[in-house]
Amino acid sequence: MTDKIGVLGKKSAQRTQRSGVERVVNAPLPTVYGEFRAIGYMDHDRGDEQVALVYGEIGAENVLTRLHSECLTGDAFGSQHCECGDQLASALRAVVAEGSGIVVYLRGHEGRGIGLLGKLRAMALQAEGLDTVEANLALGLPVDARDYGVAAGILHDLGVNSVRLMSNNPRKRDALLRHGIQIAEQVPLLIPPCENNITYLRTKRERLDHHLPHLDAVAHLS
Predict the structure, then answer these.
(1) By three-state DSSP, how is residue 81 classified?
(2) pTM of the prediction?
(3) Does the keyword Ion transport apply (predicted)?
(4) Cα gap 20→40, rounded to integer Å
C-alpha cells in the first residue's frame, strides 16, 4: 500500500509540475527615468525570477525593446570593465523618449551565463592578459551560455509580435527569431568606450560578432 501511494504521489507531482514562463505580478515602478510598470515573471524551467519594465501603452508590432542581461558589477556598481550599466540606462531613457517600450531584465545571465563568481574569476584572468573569451575557456566555462527563450516567452505574454531591438549583438536577434519574435529593426546601443573597457569591447567585436563600428574612432585608447 505504501509503495502504491508513493507512486501515485510521484505521478501527481509530475502532473502539477509547471514549465515555461508565468506572469506573477504587475506593479507600478517610478524611476529617475520615468514611471514604468514592473511585470514580474517566474521562469519555471530554470527557477529564475524575471522582470519586464514596460513604459507607456505598447502594441503588438515594432515595439522598442531591450533584452538586458543581468550584470551586477556594471548595473549596480558602475564598473567600467564593461558598458552594461550605461547600456541599461540608455535603454530606459530611449523607451521613455519613444513614449513606449520594454526593457526585459534577464536574471541568470550574469557573465554571459557563467554566474557572478565565474565572471569575477574571468575578470581576474583578464587582468593578467587574457581576453574575455580566453578567460572563460581557461576556466572550463562556456564563452556564452545565455538562453533567450524566457525573453521571447515574456514578449509573447505581453502580446508583442515584432520588436525594434536595442542591441549590438546579432545572437540576440537570431535567438528571438528562432522563438517566433520578428525583428523589425536592430537599433544600435553604442556607448563611448573608455580606457578600462576598450580591450573588452574590441574582443566582443572581433570574437563575438558584436556590431561596434564606433570603436574605429578611438584607436588612441590602449
Answers:
(1) coil
(2) 0.88
(3) no
(4) 14
Establish whether 18 is a catalytic residue: no
Please say if 144 is a catalytic residue.
yes
Q: Identify residue 182 by its one-letter amino acid code.
A: Q
Read off the amino acid at residue 27.
A
Per-residue pLDDT of 40-93, as tens digits, reads 999 999 999 999 999 999 999 999 999 999 999 999 999 999 999 999 999 999
CA gap 159, 180 in Å, rounded: 12
Number of residues that make up the chain: 222
Which residue among the candidates 43, 86, 121, 146 is catalytic per the annotation? 146
Query: Among candidates 159, 211, 187, 216, which has minimal Cα distance to 67?
Result: 187
C-alpha cell at 90: 540608455
Q: 130 with 137: CB under 8 angstroms?
A: no
What's the start-to-end Cα distance of the chain, in Å? 73
